[in-house]
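Q: What structure does this chain adopt?
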Amino acid sequence: MNKPGTIRRNFYHLLCVYLLSMGIFTLFRLLLLVLHFDQLYDLGMAKWPLVARALWMGVRFDTVISCYILFFPVVIATVLLWLGRLTPCVLRIGYVLVTLLFVVAFFLCAVDIPFFTRFFTRLNSSIFTWMDHPAMVLGMVFAEPRFMVFLFVFLVLAAVYVSLMRRIRRSHALCLPRPRKWTPHVLLWIGAGFLLWGAMFLGIRGRIAQKSPIRVGTAYFSNKPFINQLGLNPVFSFMRSCMDAQKDINRCLSWIPDDEALTRMAGLLGHDAVLDSISPIARRLVPRPVAEQYNLVLVIMEGLSTGKMTRFGNPDRLTPFLDSLAGVSYFFSNMYSAGIHTHNGIYSVLFGHPALMTKHNMMQYFSDKMAGLPNILYQQGYQTAFFIPHDDQFDNVGGFLSSNDVMTVISQKDYPAKEVKSAMGVTDEFMFRFSIPLLNRMAARGTPFFAAMMTASDHEPYVLPGDVGFVPHNRELPKQMAEFADWSLRRFMEYASGQPWFAHTVFAFIADHGCAMGRSAYDISLTYHHIPFMIYVPGLQPEEIATLGVQADVTPTLASLLGIGCVNNTLGIDLLHDTRRHAVFSSDHTLACLSDSLLFLYSRDLPDRLYRYRENDPTNYSDALPAVSDEMKTTAFSWLQTSQWMIERRKTSLPQEK
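A:
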């Protein structure tokens, strides 16, 4: 029993399982590299050593996941081998379990590629924000050809993997030792088993250093964010983010004392005007003088980065209407989104609070109404409505808005079934056309109205209608959809201009977030946050406003423009009267603070980073400018902790008008 040759054969089969699994992980990593190779455009031949190091880093992270999956089956199998009780039936059960776990891991690798393409970050726990509506998510995935390509790749690789694992298992079963009496070779087996366990434990830790096991930050060895992320295993980043989200320190943001955060935030927003009886940041909003009471139409545009606009250098003529509209509007050219998800944008635009990293604010229960455009305008006698092209229960949009003074939510349930083209609902053009009779009815009631609209055509799965008269200039479908979204906005303004209420209406346009475009020098994509914001009023003198702004500023800015004097209990400022030094936003697990010239980034597992983003400089100046870095970090922490403190202590509402 248990001769040295048997030991070698069992180790050989375990090595085959490990190498096969590592090979599949590597294929997914190489696919990600090929799809995003343009991120390395400026490195020349210097990119190859970095790519090689990133691939080696990938081997380390893949080994961590492989050892996690294999560890307990191997331990059990080793003990049974010592006892001479490892039978072909038990071996088969072990192989089936291991195969299943690796197939799940490969599925996450397949999901990670389109996830990274969209968000410029590896797979993480933020994907759970969509899981409350699996039917809609699956509809989006299966209707989008690019997603289906990766699903097909996964299915092919999974089939190959299962077939090869079956062969390895059958070969392994032939070399199992037969149960015999105890012999001296058992000592050799026991020693070999403990060595194997030790090696696998080191594989799980990913590092020999005693102080800390491998972390996400271990992969960050260069100043090229794509290279750094290339080495990560998406199963590792996903599991790590899930575990971090469950920690108490991450459930409740507590980087600095709350008192310090509140004091700093009050100072940043204007401490002398604070109304402490309402909240530590409540202050009076100074309205602009107006001759009449205006309606307000606010269009929140899906995925519209400034990088898509000709005004910001895009050569593809994706947004001719918006480019022309910017020239006759108040155009805010230095605006940033709160986060990288639609629910971040709706929440921050309408209610003036930041995105709290990975938290889904509209999924939280609020016992009080939130101060924001719907609440402010409702108290002023406005009718309030929100139009969304798909299911209003996705992201809890309908429920959250209805509980916050949005009187009517128009969604997929209200549109003709034949017009619902995909999981994203109706097209932008149809939603706009459908809205006109409803807005006419609201205007006929004799009181002003506020209508917000969320578009979706520029979001996968893409559906380009062929029966509305739209003719694209570009050949690529994503570019055509950006053109169609812009064309739909033009049609909406044409529809609206023929209505009697048009001359008495303020039209505002802003994106929910941008999109990853081109190459990023940093761990976040600034094109995902740099968005247009414009306000058009018939007869208004146009002006470009370069004041640094964030989505939270939309509520006080529009309220001021409408001539509404009220309490501003948001974290936003009136960009027509005030200025800010910093814009704070987050990309899930990364928190950013941006000034006119510097970008500060904070991530839990990484060192602080400070960049001169205007020059696209990848040098980290955090150590060279410690005072600046600390100030920007404290500002970012204060933003989020102040918002969290207000939510937890029910300080987000407005005083009710008497």
